Amino acid sequence: MFALAPRHGAFFCLLAAPSCTPPTTQISVPGPGEAAKSTPTETAPASTQPQDVATSTDGPATTPDSGTTEPWDQPYNGILDTSGPVDVLTLWGSRHDIGYAEGALLCDRITNLVEDYVLDFWIADSGMDWDTLSAFAIDPIDVSGGDRDELEGLLQGMQDHCPADALIVQSDYLGLGDDGSRALTLDDLILANALPDLGCSSFTVWGEASASQSTLHGRNFDYTSDPKNTFLTEHLIKVIRSDDEDTDFVSVSMPGLMGCISCFSDDGVGLTMHNVTGLSTEHLGGFVPRTWAMRAALVAAANGPDPIGAAESVMDGSPQFRGNNLHLSLPCDGDGCTGGAVYELDGHTSHGDGQATVRLPHHDLIGAGSAIVATNHYVERSTPPTSGDSYSRYDDLSDHIQQAIGDGGVDVSTAWSMLSDVSLSNTAHSLVVHDRILHLRVSRDRSTRATDVPAISLGFDDLFAAVPTH
User: Fold this and answer.
1) Who is most buried in 52, 115, 205, 462, counting CB within 10 A?
2) How far apart are CA 94 and CA 246, in angstroms?
């Protein structure tokens, strides 16, 4: 119904929507929109500083002390730190507050993503213009509740704090009556959130498969990038304290995308996303973009006594268009608990498992009860492949884990080696989360794999210390 032109072996499917001692530096927090081509009219007080981001390899992150000025005195609940190798956007409050602050702080970084990635890349490749595509693509998307609140806040924050030219979308692929230019709309933001086209490989180990016994989640995020590289250059870390969801989480993402691609809660729950061809959907509408469904599942898992069941309930209740492997990791310090599961998910509701087949470690093909792997095919929901790229990456990661169990388990260094081994030429970000530290590598150009660039390490305590408390 929505499958359009192929690109690099992937389909454009709507609703497819990876020891440190830092230098002592004076942190300077830029005003909203700095590093973009325009600067918003409001600026954050220089003393409302997030923690510094330290370049490192594999060790724990340490940071200088943050400022003490009360940042809630500014007109939005957000701080943007561009002082490190990866920008850090800290947001807090209600869903509307969070969206509002992101819009106020990122301005034309959001508009650029809509122009370069959505219009001039995806829509251009579809053979349609905006009017033709949006006429049948927007209505089937369910935009309600907190998702709508945050998107509307995003647009309002841009309108209230960004210069006029940051709100103008320019593209040859707009509607015929737009003459190549018009104001950014809510529909632009909805479509941007429904598009992500992702490859990806990931694994979780704990117990005997982890060198420390505790949960370690490794992930490569593979991408289809736009020719201008905006999808890569605009990568950033979002640190979110959501009052409406009663959850603190870190998201490695892009401006204007409010769902989860690679998300980890402050209490150790993680979710990462992977494309799968999947079974055909049986829904006619009411689709929930999978990044939004994944955020809701993360919140449910982080706040419920049965995290695996809570996330499954969300996924079963979120109509999907295409196939997904959603990889859940959970805090686990030994062999007597479950540190991970994979949800093999699509909109084929007549399947015996409903929309979601929950794959647990003892169902996996690794042969270990303390590890689980996800790439881009189903293992249980349908017959798994026995060859091909996804199978090879799955098999390679499984072999690495089996060998590591005999060698004392996977540590952060081993995890990087594993991720490098299965990295594709288009790996945009690669990460390892272990003991509440995010180890992250981000590619900034199409010719470099994320696994080949230096890593940074950020402690969750330091990231959330930037969020003000009364």
Assistant:
1) 205
2) 10
Give the C-alpha separation, 251 to 453, whole Å: 20
What is the rounded CA–CA span in Å between residue 288 and residue 16?
10
SS3 288: coil
The backbone region for 85, taken as left when phi is positive above 0, alpha when psi lies in -120 to 50, beta otherwise, is alpha
Q: What is the CATH number of the domain that holds 305?
A: 3.60.60.10
- Domain boundaries, position 272: 201-465
Residue 267 β-bridge partners: none
What's the rounded mean pLDDT across residues 112-129? 89
Domain count within the chain: 1
329 has a pLDDT exceeding 80: yes
Q: Give yes or no for a contact between 367 and 388, defined as CB atoms under 8 angstroms apart.
A: no
Nearest-5° angle of CA 368, CA 337, CA 238?
95
Q: What is the mean pLDDT of the chain?
A: 84
Residue given tokens 């072999």 in the structure block: 399
What pLDDT does residue 228 have?
A: 86
Instruction: With beta carbons less than 8 A apart as the criterion, state whether 198 and 274 touch.
Output: yes
Residues 87/98, Cβ–Cβ less than 8 Å: no
